[in-house]
Structures are given as C-alpha cells and as structure tokens.
Write a structure and sequence with these properties.
By secondary structure, the chain is an alpha/beta fold. Helices cover about 45% and strands about 10% of the residues. It has a domain of about 120 residues: Dna Topoisomerase Vi A Subunit, Chain: A, domain 2 (3-Layer(aba) Sandwich). GO terms for molecular function: DNA binding; zinc ion binding.
Amino acid sequence: MATLPASLKQIALFLERLPGIGEKTANRLAMYLLRMPEVELQAFGEAVRELKKRTKLCKQCLNLTEDELCSICMDNRKDISTITVVETVLDLLSFETGNIYNGLYHVLHGKIDPLNSVGPDEIYINHLLTRVKGLTSSLKEIILATNPDMEGEATAMYIKKQLERLKEEDGGLKFKITRLAYGLPMGANLEYADYGTLGKAIEGRRDY
C-alpha cells in the first residue's frame, strides 16, 4: 500500500490535529506545502516558529497581541464606558468584523464547564472583577456575550452574581449588567423555528 514519505506524513499528522481537518485534507495541505516555493515555505515556517514567542495576552482585556495592550484597548475612539465579555478571541473578532459595537472587551478564554473540569478559576473571571474594581467612575455597562448554550448560560449567570456582589460592596460602582438578546434571525420563518429559539425571542421582545 502506497504511503507518504515519513517527513511529509509527519507534517500531515500535525495538520490533522487542527480543528476541522481530516486525514484527506491534511494530506492535501501537506502536499501543497511541499509544492510551495522555498522562500515562501521558509517564511511560513519562521512565522509558525515565532508564533508562541511573539503572541501574548493584552494586559487589560486579554485579547491576543504582540504588545502590552492590544490595538482595541489602545484605540482612543472606543467607548470606554462599555465592556463586552466574550468566551474567545474569535467571538471578539465577530463583533469587530461586523463593525456593530464600539466599546471594549474582556476575553474569558473559555467557559465554566464542570464536565471537563473547567471551573471559574480556570478562566479569566477574577481578572474581570479586578478590572471592574478600578473603573468606578467610567464604567456604565457590562454586556455578557457568552454563547447561548448550557455552559455559556451558566458562565453568564456566575459572572452576573459576582458583579452584583461587587456593586453591593462598592457603592461607587453604578454600571448595569446586560445579556445579549437571542432569538429569531433576520429572514427567519416562524414555522421552522425551534421552541428554544422562540422562547428566547419572546423573552427578548422590546417596544415597537
């Protein structure tokens, strides 16, 4: 049975460990890398080698950056009175790419998931609470934008309780706590909506 050369197979096995990459796709990508011009392949290899060395967490919001603060936290045009709490950097990028939000962020790098031994101390909730304590006068709203699954809801509820406790302990904290509205997408047909989606749409209804 024909097999790839050992060096090429090793690359394919590494690629196969990436999310969403199966064996056939990994083999095709490995072959593509082999066909790349030597200069481009070396540049790619150097970028991969430097990835962990140069990339770190923003001291303020925990976004990925190569500096002390990320480009979002350094942007003077951002509304510093609002912080949106997200699970991952990819969630943050969704907000930024859509150009639908102009505030700051806080990246948890996970969510509370007891089945996988992930508790509040394993993600950056305490960092958020410490950050909030130092924003007595400027902070007006914290938006909890964790995903609408069981773990995301549990994470949002835990954070809400911790933030409410902070407000009780410090009378100077006047911010409100909000949760993203989840429900029917634009162009949706009620006939095909599931009960959970309809329920969220009812809960998140507004004046019209």
